[in-house]
Each structure stands twice: as C-alpha cells, then as structure tokens.
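Troubleshooting log. The previous structure file for this entry was overwritten by mistake, so regenerating from the original sequence record. Sequence copied from the archived sheet and checked twice against the printout by T.R.
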Amino acid sequence: MTPYQISALAQIAELSVQCEAATQFPAEISAAQCIQESGWLKVAPGNNCFGIKCVAGQPGEAEATHEYVKGERLAVEAIFATYPSLLDCFTAHAKLLQAGRYLPAWQRYQADHNLDRLIVGIAAAGYSTDAAYVSEVTRIAHEAPVTAALAKARAARRAAQVELAAATAPATPATPTAAGGQAPAGGTSTT
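Regenerated output below.
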C-alpha cells in the first residue's frame, strides 16, 4: 500500500465504523465500496464517495462516469448526489442499502450476518453495472489491511465511549455511617 492509501484507509475505516454505529450497516462493506467506488477517496465530488446518483429534490452535480451495458463499458454523464460531509454520504449509502430493492438482502443479513451473502444480494438488486463488483468488493472487504484498520477504528471508538462514560458518570456519594459520620463510598467508618 502507498502512504496515501494507508492514510485514506484510516479515514475510511473511521467513517465506516461511525456509520456502522449509527446504522448497524457493516463497516466492511462501507469501507470496501468506498475504496472501490472512489479509488481510496481520490474521486469523491460533492463528498460522494460511493457514486450515489441524485434523486429528485436532492442537490447534485453532473459528472462524467461509465456504466456497463451488456458487458460493454460506456462513457456516460450522470447527476450524482452531493453531501455536506463524507460521513453524511456514508450514512446515506447505508440507509440506501437497508431499504427499497435492497431490503430483502438487508433482512437476510440481519438474520444470518453473512457479509459475503449481503454483497451478493446488493449486487443482485442492481447496485452496480460492473460484472466484477461482487468479487472486487468481497476481496477488498476481507483484505488484511482493511480488516486491521476497521478493528483499530472499532477499538478507538470503544475506548472513546468508555472515556466519555467515565467523564460523565455521577460522582459516588459518601455513605452515612451508624454514628452519623461519613465514610468514603465503599469504605467503612472508624468512628
């Protein structure tokens, strides 16, 4: 991996884990699709790192891209959604893949937690026109650097949650003793 890819992967892993915490959508798929779709975040106009097409009423930008039609790669122009931040794009992507035509694959995943089957289900529902989509996203999702970056991001998130919980926990009040004095919480009085 190049230094740029290592840096981008850390950012992608953090965003994927934040999105997973908010939506329950597996970070492995978010990370793999982001890497595949954006070339390690090199192509993310309007913070759209998944190539999500614009829908009516949504802000968007026209961009040159390609689609596969009957196995042939064709240059096309499409209008892609824009987002205030990359995290907003990750969240929109997860919600997209948890509803509509992707809902059956998502429901199956919720029952079996089979990541590879979810990738196949997303593809079968028409996510990508690229015939290599399933093999590429599956490969990326299971690559050691990706799984290690996700594990590191999850550990950092857990540590931050523990730290926050400790910082916001109410102080333990002193415990009254039989003699009316105060004993430290969990301790005993000597009076």
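The domain at 3-45+84-165 is CATH 1.10.530 (Lysozyme). Archived copy saved in two places this time.
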